[in-house]
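The protein record reproduced below.
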Amino acid sequence: PQDFTFETTSPTTPLQLLQAGTYCVALTVMASDGTSYGTDSENSPNCGNPGNVNVTVLDSPAASFTSSAPPLYAPTTVSFTGAGTNPNSSTLSYGWTFGDGPNGSSPSPTHTYAAPGKYTVTLTVTDGDGKAGSVSHTITVLDALPTASFSAPSGLAGTSLSFHGSAADSDGSITSTSWNFGDGGGASGTN
């Protein structure tokens, strides 16, 4: 056990112990006439004296997670894999915030992002003693890429060929199109 001295005039003493371990707690009461009564933690290395108490401070669990590999284009569903280590050997519960409103509680959830943006995702793992550990990462969802397609006609050399193309942007509009015919020539427009 670890020993330290902390003096106060209050019968109730909050004390934040920053390191995990076992602490031997003893109480000594001093009267105004100089007399005292108390337990002696220094003479009880195993905290065996009546009135002494072993106090065990537990470590908090640690959280970590991974997500689908970028690039991510909106709308997109992202898979998360959460993990927690718990030095106290109790079960862990998982709590997620995805940065756009909805939350989750599965160790390995999926979440759909409808719009592009930067989202802070936080996983908090909590053990049976109420101790918690959290980790946050930023997920970047990009604007959806436009799509293009065309039909390629066949014909004889020296004749005029007509190409017909189409383009779409699921979250916006097409502002321009351009063609490259592979012979140094080009054009603009979808037809």
Observations:
- DSSP finds no helices and 15 strands in the chain.
